[in-house]
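Question thread 4412

I'm putting together a teaching handout and wanted feedback from people who do this every day. The idea is simple: show students a protein as raw sequence, then show them the structure tokens that encode its fold, then repeat with a second protein so they can compare. Below is the first pair exactly as I plan to print it.
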Amino acid sequence: MRLILAALALSVAIPAVAQTGLPGTPSKALVTAGTYAVDPNHTQVTWTLNHMGFSMLSGQFGAQGGTLTIDPAKPAAAKLDVTFAIDRLSVTAEPFSHHLKSKDFFDAATYPTARFVSTGIIASGNTARITGNLTIKNVTKPVTIAATFVGAGNNPMNKKLNFGFRGTAQIKRSDFGLGYAAPVVADTVDLVINAAFTAQ
């Protein structure tokens, strides 16, 4: 019985131990004013929609580049500009990837990237409401992102200040000319954005 209790105590303690010693902490005070580059290796948008009422379907876009200009003393003046690589979208089946990149959906050969440019930011504590313009297939529509600050700190790999946010948003496929298979496939798309930035 003692062995079982000890094992249970260890299994509970392991997640807590795993969280200690991480380079980043949820302290906005570590972020200094400046222009930061998007970290394309750790920035992605995950999209999810209802597929024919049978299942939920997800895929991802990675960041190709971009910047965030921010002054913690003036959060409302921050400027975000990020480009995403539509032509390198990721799903779990290669034939489906080709289908999404075709003219039926993204026409990635003609429109290889998407872009988000902020137009306003309202910050409150560790959260922010980011409004901006999203351009897909040369169509630009307003989008609002609900963002939460994750953490900041010096990256032991590149010895530079890194920080990041997690955000959620919702768009409609039809707004961007992506309405193929409607209404069989849901028009509403939920987005989860993990955005990482590094000092230049």
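The second pair follows. I'd like the answer to focus on this one:
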Amino acid sequence: MSEAWSSDAAEARRLAILASYPLDRPGIGAQLDRLAALAAKLCDAPIGLVSWVEADSQRFIGRSGTELTGTPREIAFCDIARLADEGMVVSDARDDARFRDNPLVTGAPGIRLYASQPLRSLEGAPLGTLCVIDTRARADLTPGQIEGLRTLADSAMGLLERWRLDTRSRAQAAVSRTTLHDLTQRFEVLADAMPQMVWASLPSGETDYFNRQWCDFTGAPSQTSFGDSWMRFLHRDDKDEVARVWREAVSAGGGYDIEYRLRRADGEYRWMLVRGLPMRDETGAIYRWIGTCTDIHEQKARAQEHEMLTRELSHRIKNIFAVINGLIALSLRRNPALDQLGRELQQRVLALGRAHDFVRPHGEFARALHSHSSLHGMLESLLSAYQSAPGERVRVSGEDLRIDDRSATPLALFFHELATNSAKYGALSADHGHVEIAIDSGKPDEATIMLTWSEHGGPPVQAPSELGFGSRLIEMSVTRQLSGTLDYDWRADGLRVSATIPSQTMAR
């Protein structure tokens, strides 16, 4: 089919067909934007487009995830893709000789994955594409995602043809109705070919369409699930939450995204990822909802197994900390002269154990008060021994940053050593002394975090003549393990220590 539109005469005819669509009609862009958004969600991509290839440029008549309205035709992926009868998938544009030097690949937006289905008029003219774009290279899309793109491309052309046909004379009305019926039939056939369950509902939220996969899964005819009857297949523990989220989506007119358990025909409940988007007319009113149910039961099971394994590993790590402390205590009983050194070592091991507690995986019902990746939470736990209530003597300000197992240990040693020294010689050794910890994430383009420890109200301090073991631990933690820099300011009012750390070392 593509070769038939390659001559100059055919291109002139194609451009004339292109101009016959009433794209300036109110509401058309909004509806095409929603199809682009649904395509992006279906393929887990940041950008979805409905692209129209004109004489000298491509115009994005529907878009999601980008502010671009078009590009010159000579660099348009869609100019090539519109001629691919079965669609086109480019997993990494850097490895494709057709695109590796394209400025859309070498520069912004940095295209890597590109996948599309052609948009063809009733005459068969290749007008453009419905496509998704990702800035990260990925393996090929699944057959279901490709089929979904094809379905959405057909839906986009169905809408465009409806609007085009509406502008024609009454004599063509019969042709319009026949064409629309044919497009509806094509949508239903393609929906039945998709591996996901596809559903649609009225603006009120009353469901009136399910594809064949739903019927095969539930073992019931589609009509028996219309209205809200589909909820009888839900797990009883999920019904109230599903009903609430669906009511809120219908009321607000936003996206619908939820996970729930659905009963299969054999009685087994399986986890589903359910997503839906509203379709709007030219006035912005919702006239249809369309969505999918994707079986994620195996992924859920693997995630639960992973959580069990990580919890077991965490338990064993904590046992190791306990064993180390036990060995230290046993050694101290045999060597009383090392008591002070041993107690300090025990406190450091305990600090590492508390730091581990804030980066280990937590189950849904066993989360800490703060997030298990919370810097604020770890500081509160580490410094609780120096105050009876949070903020009484140690005040933390600034953004609560995410940390992980890589940064938790050096951060715990850094703050533990500062607190220990302050309790012995600095602000925390005085009744009215206090410490302020400031967390400054700086400007986005600086990509650094500044952690500042400031002591106030303690005895006079002065710089030591040489670094002790604790100071060397601080130096090792910040400069070696976190790739940061340290700055000491021995002020009359109290010690001030600033650590500047690259943001990327705080959490993966």
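Top answer:
Good format. For the second protein you could add a caption like this: Residues 50 and 201 are 24 Å apart (CA to CA). The mean pLDDT is 83.
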